[in-house]
Amino acid sequence: MVQELIHPQSTGASREDLEAFWMPFTANRQFKANPRLFVSAKDMYFTTEDGRQVLDGTAGLWCVNAGHCRPKIVEAIQQQVATLDYAPAFQMGHPGAFQLADRLAKLAPGDLNHVFFVNSGSEAVDTALKIAIAYHRVRGEGTRQRLIGRERGYHGVGFGGISVGGIGTNRKFFGSLLTGVDHLPHTHSLEHNAFSRQQPAWGAHLADELERLVALHDPSNIAAVIVEPVAGSTGVLIPPQGYLERLRSICDKHGILLIFDEVITGFGRLGTGFAADYFGVMPDMITVAKGISNGTVPMGAVFVRDGIYDAFMHGTENAIELFHGYTYSGHPVACAAAMATLDVYEEEGLFHYARELSGYWEEAMHSFKGAPHVIDVRSLGLVAGIELESLPGKPTARAFECFLRCYQQGLLIRTTGDTIALSPPLIIQKHQIDQLVELLTQILHELP
Ligand code: PXG
Asked: What are phi and psi of 383, to 5 degrees?
């Protein structure tokens, strides 16, 4: 029972102590009646307040790609905060930000050689959208202002991100949003693609909807298209074969920038540095966050191609080229965390390891085909979505119950709608995949 897991006494926390914190994307009243608290973590496991080990099937929130509390990263953070805790981000700098940007640029595909630092995925997205519109303007194409996202897309929670995003609940409470935004259709189809392995065969033609929007608005009014190469938050939607290539070629044809939001896919999730590498499709900008610092210190970034950066580097020398940035852009502690994170990825060959393991992972995930309630399995790299049939009249209830039971029995999963999303740290071992599958299978059998 969930009730039995509450031990507010163990931290001395009373019910009132839980009231002040308005929790994000959480059913606050439900949570506070039955809290679930982690107090420590190591490698693949969290420890709960009542001393239980919970296998991390989600890398926290898709961010702890190298596993938890890695000594090298912890030490780098400790050292940095004791040496240079902060340096002003505007008209001043510190070496760590330049070193990190240089290293990231070398890791990024093609000529994505310039890096704008931010503090989250949401800020990365809003930054990329602003750069796109400003880029066209500095080139004398200031009419290119329209932005195109996709249904079911998740691009964080800034006004830019929810405007191009396509998740109804994240939009409907927040007024008129940005104007001049359209959405491509999402690519999910149980009818055509259920239980496909890797990239589904059906759906590339959905990219052609972009041509319709171009015809409607004229290319001279369109700034950029933004998509997640693999849509994560909405329940792991893998792009149909040829789909991203088609988006790229339509954007090229009409001078529209293509932005890949790789907040989830960046830093090894698909067994490559970026999804752009995995799919062999080159975007004009990439947004990242999460795995850039292994979830330890908030950080995000926008990768920008040479031609975009160069377009801004004109005018008088003392002119600020882009009126945008954050107090904590390139924060020294975040930079140190990211540097050490990249060291760990590199020294342990984690992207390669993830690539090698992805076949085992895929087999394991597709073993859920035939388990009770399962109506689709989607898997690529070290990510998977397992879609459950909704309880009649109660969408999300079955998956949430599954989440609660997993937590009680020692496994952290993430659910969105009635889809279970799995994205373990890239250090997961085969026996831990087996453990995850065994437990989840058992719980699926027990679910109402
Ligand atoms: N873009 C994408 C593609 C994301 O997945 C963001 C932007 C926003 O990042 P920040 O750092 O502002 O949260 C995200 C974040 C989930 C889940 O379980 C997904 C995200 C965040 C929290 C939970 O689906 N994605």
From this structure: -135, 150
**Single pTM value for the model:** 0.97
Are 403 and 26 spatial neighbours (Cβ–Cβ below 8 Å)?
Answer: no
| The 3-state secondary structure of 35-77, one letter per residue | CCCEEEEEECEEEECCCCEEEECCHHHHCCCCCECCHHHHHHH
Q: How many CB atoms lie within 10 A of CB 255?
A: 14
The average pLDDT across 334-344 equals: 99
**Contacts of 88 by beta carbon, 8 Å cutoff, 6+ apart:** none
Q: What is the mean pLDDT of the chain?
A: 96
Instruction: Report all structural domains of the chain as residue ranges with CATH numbers, in order of start.
Output: 36-66+350-446 (3.90.1150.10), 72-347 (3.40.640.10)
CA atoms within 13 A on the CB side of 245: 9
62-90: average pLDDT: 98
Average pLDDT (261-275) is 98
Q: Which residues line ligand 1 (CB under 6 A)?
A: 61-62, 120-122, 125, 154-156, 228, 232-233, 261, 263-264, 289, 414, 416
Using the mean position of ligand 1's atoms as its centre, give its distance from the Cα of residue 300 in Å.
Answer: 11
Do residues 187 and 206 touch, judged by C-beta distance below 8 A? Answer: yes
Amino acid identity at 113: N
- Report how far Cα 233 is from the mean position of its chain's Cα atoms: 7
- Residue, of 10 and 174, whose pLDDT is higher: 174
The reported pLDDT for the residue numbered 2 is 39
